[in-house]
Amino acid sequence: MGDFKLTSIEEFEAATAKLLETGAKVGADSWQLRVKNQTPHCKFGEQGVCCRICSMGPCRITPKAPRGICGCDVHGIVGRNYLKFTAGGAATHSDHGREICHTLYLSAEDGNYHVKDPDKLKKIAKEWGVETEGKDIYDLAHEMAELALLEYGKPFGNQRWLKRAPEHTQELWERENIAPRAIDREVASSLHMTHMGCSSKPEALIRQSLRAGLADGWGGSMCGTEFSDVLFGTPKPIDTEANLGVMNAENVNIVVHGHDPSLSEMICEYADDPEMIAYAKSFGAKGITVSGVCCTSNEVAMRRGIPMAGNFLQQENVVLTGACEAIVVDVQCIFPALGPLSKCFHTKFITTSPIAQMPDSEFIEFHAENAGENAKAIVKMACENFVNRRQDLVYIPDMKQKATVGYSVEAIVKTLDGVTNSQVDETGTTKPLLECITSGVIRGAVAMVGCNNPKVRPDYAHVELMKKLIANDIIIIASGCSAQAAARAGLMSKEAKDLCGAGLKRVCELADIPPVLHMGSCVDISRMLVLAATLSKESGLPISALPVVGCAPEWMSEKAVSIGNYVVATGIDTFLGVDPYVSGSTEVADLLTNGIRNWVEAAYTVEKDIDKLGDAMIARIEEKRAALGI
Ligand code: MSK
């Protein structure tokens, strides 16, 4: 098995403990301390039984007070809370997608942003029935961007991207009246339904939750992913490194964090500029290291091989190294704590989006017109800050792993089809993957996604579940902070094949892939939808019949609930390790874990015991195989 060794969770934790010692020296706060102040959590909130949508309350449902002042029962309250949570996530992902469409609209030959994948743009144009012949690529980009933006508010019809789904799935959505209309309409309708005096029927609320989720996955997120590929390139396998040890004590360290690649791409561009590297050297540094946190990290890792410093619950750690000159953030999953924390060190905390403005940050507004200029200013600021380090506080844990990332659907098809078919081009098929699954060489696939959450030992669930699944010949596709947990542990190293069962190991060797395939950021879960749809079409089986499940064992954000809803509504059973605040209502919990199966052929399983969660996924995959007779 060679020298390869995973980095253990205990090693992750030991590194964090040392960094917290540095924090204690400078009086820094940390999420570990704040969790202590916030626990035990409010039981009403945890069960989803608190209602504060009007000012007659807040009302809390108990056996002695079974209805709120308006008469709403616990099922209506829990269902409304669940729908509001979903709408928050769908709005957030989709607005990210909208920003990408605006950036595409402003792309120009001589501008800050360019079309890097013209073939993908033309392919989408063809899909949408737009003439490409004889058109300048930027004229086409602007036309497509405008059409995509109209998807957010069009008065009639459903989302264009739904046509990518297998016919059977589309029929289910039509039958159940959950095919999403305009993206903004689904978010607005959700908030309308949850207003005081509107819906309190669990069935209606959960149906709309699925619809709003679908507006995200097959709408806003799909726009985000597809047009990011057009602008910044469709990911291909690329080598990188992961964990805090990717930061370099001798270099200026710039950490990019958030989700929107428009900012981070520009920062990477300028950090690579010889003029900027010389500038860094003029302050005594040896160079510039850009690394990433959260999904911005996934975006630049997949396209540029930029190393991944950490995931969601590591964001404070990068500052605690004392070697971070600037942490530059765009939107989503950014701790406001970074403001006061950066003040304990020399670190510049730079916010760039009007959507995510925070105290104790320097706000440098970023948009397509000034992107180059502002990225350069930020890189310069970081270089100048190098001399302000307190050397006695610098400690970068010596911990990193190799990772191969960038498995877009196109890359997966090309890599796997290439093993059996030397003539493969971009029109390759998923047939080799299907053959591996039907023959039993691979038992199935799990889409591992989602965040960290202090309610679960950080990264433990992601890493342990992945180890268990690959040992059982189940291939993993991973995105978001789950992907980063895998990369930091070493599960995205090709050498991790030695941890697989014999079948999956053989596939990894033949195709030269790691057993956990990096599919990108959280908006890129739309890539997983496209993969599932392709597998379904090419096998002739409904998505729900494929031995494929989804899992978010440590999820925490509203986006994750929206994702769960669109994954389930696409026909993929979804396993959660954290309860989505629905345990207070038997009706809502039963709908989500059973009832919706009658609508969309899939449902949720919630299991906080990680070992049991893994067993349940394996059992579900084997059940599906047995039903297919394979
Ligand atoms: S960053 S939504 S903590 S995956 Fe996409 Fe990670 Fe979850 Fe944010």
Describe this structure in words.
The protein is α/β, with parallel strands linked by helices. It folds into 3 domains: 66-232, Substrate Binding Domain Of Dnak, Chain:A, Domain 2; 244-393, Rossmann fold (3-Layer(aba) Sandwich); 401-628, Rossmann fold (3-Layer(aba) Sandwich). The chain contains 25 helices and 16 strands. It has a 6-stranded parallel sheet. The chain has a 6-stranded parallel sheet with strand order 13-12-11-14-15-16, sandwiched between helices. Strands 1-2 form a two-stranded antiparallel ribbon. Helix 4 crosses helix 22, helix 8 packs antiparallel against helix 9 and helix 18 runs parallel beside helix 25 (610-628). The longest helix has 32 residues, at 74-105. It is globular, with a radius of gyration of 24 Å. 57% of the residues are buried. The mean pLDDT is 96. Bound molecules: Broken Fe4S4 cluster. Broken Fe4S4 cluster (MSK) is lined by residues 259, 294-295, 311-312, 332-333, 450-451, 480-481, 521-522, 557, 559-560.
Topology:
Blueprint: H1 9-25, H2 31-38, H3 43-47, E1 50-51, E2 59-60, H4 74-105, H5 118-127, H6 137-150, H7 167-175, H8 183-193, H9 202-232, E3 238-242, E4 252-257, H10 261-271, H11 274-281, E5 288-293, H12 294-304, E6 308-310, H13 315-320, E7 326-329, H14 338-343, E8 348-351, E9 362-363, H15 371-385, E10 401-405, H16 409-420, H17 431-439, E11 444-448, H18 460-471, E12 474-479, H19 480-489, H20 502-511, E13 516-520, H21 525-539, E14 548-552, H22 558-569, E15 574-576, H23 586-595, H24 597-600, E16 604-606, H25 610-628
